[in-house]
Write a structure and sequence with these properties.
Elements lengths: L1 H13 L2 H18 L12 H4 L6 H16 L6 E5 L7 H7 L5 E6 L2 H10 L5 E6 L26 E6 L8 H14 E14 L1 H4 L12 E4 L2 E3 L9 E4 H10 L3 E2 L19 E6 L3
Parallel strand pairs: 1-2, 1-4, 2-3, 4-5, 5-8
Antiparallel strand pairs: 5-10, 6-7, 7-8, 9-10
Helix pairs in contact: 4-5, 7-9
Bound molecules: S-adenosylmethionine.
Amino acid sequence: MRVTNGIKRLVHGVLPRAFVNLVWNLGSDARDVLLGRRKAGRPQPWRVWHNVGGGDFHATGRHFRDLFAEAVNFQPGFHVLDLGCGAGRLAFPLAESLDETGRYTGFDLSDRALGFARKHVTSRARIEFVRAQVESREYAASGQKASGYVFPAEDNSVDAALAISLFSHLLPEDAAHYLAETGRVLKPGGRVFLTGFLVEAEQKEGIGNPDHFLPMRPFADGVWAADPRHPERAIGFDRALFDQWVKAAGLVWAAPVVAGFWSRTGGAGDFQDAIVLEKPR
Ligand SMILES: C[S@@+](CC[C@H](N)C(=O)[O-])C[C@H]1O[C@@H](n2cnc3c(N)ncnc32)[C@H](O)[C@@H]1O
C-alpha cells in the first residue's frame, strides 16, 4: 500500500490532473476489455468518455440500489432524485424497480454521461435526466457555481434521494448547498442515502497514514483532501461540520454511519462511508 500510494502521489504531484484522469480511465477500460468484463448485450459506458467510477458498472449499480432501497424503505411508486447520476449506474437497476406510478429524475453536469443514460435506460416508470450546468474543476465542466444550483424538483416532491460518490467531489460550500437543496425537495419523512468521506475521531487518527487506502491532508477548517491542490478529486468533511450542514438543511440522521474502508489499511465492505438522513415529518 505504501509503495502504491507513493507512486500515486508522485504521479499526481508531477502530471496535470486532466492527463492523469485520461490515462487512468483508458487503463481501466483496457483492463475491462482484457478481463472480459465488457459483456455483450448489456450497454456499458466507457470510463474514458462517460466519467464512470471503478468496478463492474451494473453489479455495482445493483449493490447500491439494494443499499439505497433498504435505507429509504423504497416503494415502486416513489419519486427518486439521483444527485450526480453520471451514466445511470443507479438508474438502470432503479428503472427496473419502479413501476408505472414511479418516477426517477437524475441530474449531472456531464452531457456525455447523461447521453449514455438517456439512450439506454428504459422503464415503465417516468424517467428523466437533467443537465446541471455547473462548474467543476475535477470534471472539467463550466457553468454556474454549484453552490447556487437549484435541483430539478419542486419543494416537498421527492420520496427518496441518493448521491453515490458525489459528495466526495464537492467543495464545502457546494456540499452544504446540495444538502440544503435535498432538504428542500424531500417530502416530510423522505430520506437521502449518500456516500462520501466523513471524518470522525477514528478517521482523524492517522488520517495522513500512507498505508491507508486514501490518505488525506488538511484542506480547510474541518475539510480534508487527498490532494489539497485538487480538492475535488477526493474530499472529506469533519463530522461536526457535516452535522452543521445537516441541521441547516432541516435534516436528521436516520441511521448510524457505515464506515467505508478508505481510512483503513485493509478491510472489506464499501470504499466510501454510507450516510442516511431524513427530513422529519
Ligand atoms: C464518481 S461519479 C458517480 C456517478 C454516479 N453517481 C454513479 O454512482 O455512477 C461523480 C459524478 O458526479 C458528477 N458531478 C460532480 N460534481 C457535480 C455537481 N456539482 N453537480 C452535479 N453533478 C456533479 C460527475 O459528473 C460524475 O458523473
